[in-house]
Amino acid sequence: MRQQNNTINQGSELNFNFDNERPIYIQIVEQLEAMIISGKLPPSSKLPSVRELAAKARVNPNTIQRALLELERKNLIYTERTNGKFVSKNLARLVDSREEYIKNRIAEFVIEMHTLGLDERELIRIIKEGKKS
């Protein structure tokens, strides 16, 4: 079955930012995952080719291929043999991934705040105060 030609415009949504602390392919996975679960890369949309993504991210195509394999393993994207790679159309999987992503980021944040000496009660108080502003 052929997908609708809803190809991602490589110039607008795909902006990669990297740090030197972690492997680049992991950062690509995280950034593409965030774009997928936020809807910036909508379900069933076609991803640019590996070469196009590599050029956009300024990395080796093998790095992109490794990241895409991980996203496919997570069932966030799929490959149509002759048509390319697409964002999953499985909305339940995307919702689950979004919730998992959010929980992981919150856990990282809470750990970081603990290293600064904040306990849960103080952290919740600060968050509530921030919402009032």
Describe the structure.
With 133 residues, the protein is mostly helical. It has two domains: 24-89, Winged helix-like DNA-binding domain superfamily/Winged helix DNA-binding domain (Arc Repressor Mutant, subunit A); 92-132. The chain is built from five helices and two strands; from the N terminus they run αααββαα. Strands 1-2 form a two-stranded antiparallel sheet. α1 packs across α3 (61-73), α1 (24-38) crosses α4 (91-115) and α2 (50-57) crosses α3. It is elongated and about 55 Å long.
Keywords for this entry:
2 domains; mainly alpha; elongated; two-stranded antiparallel sheet; disordered N terminus; 133 residues; Arc Repressor Mutant, subunit A; 56% helix
Protein topology:
Elements (H helix, E strand, L loop, with lengths): L23 H15 L11 H8 L3 H13 L3 E4 L3 E4 L3 H25 L4 H13 L1
Antiparallel strand pairs: 1-2
Helix pairs in contact: 1-3, 1-4, 2-3
